[in-house]
Amino acid sequence: MTEILSIMSGNVWKIEVNENDIVKEGDVLVILESMKMEIPIESTHAGVVAEIKTAEGEFVQEGDVLVKLKTD
Predict the structure, then answer these.
(1) What is the reported pLDDT for 51?
(2) H or E segment to which residue 42 belongs
């Protein structure tokens, strides 16, 4: 299981995937908003979205788990 972490503190502006979606390395999973900037959080591996650990509008800290991926 691979954990995709927040790279900074900010609000979850948009979640681009759903559980059980197949993703490739580099796909945008979540978009954070901080200081009126949109920061895309990309998948670091190919796999299947196992669990979404956040919600749109939630404030997250740097290092928080956003998404868990099942990887080969």
Answers:
(1) 97
(2) strand 37-42
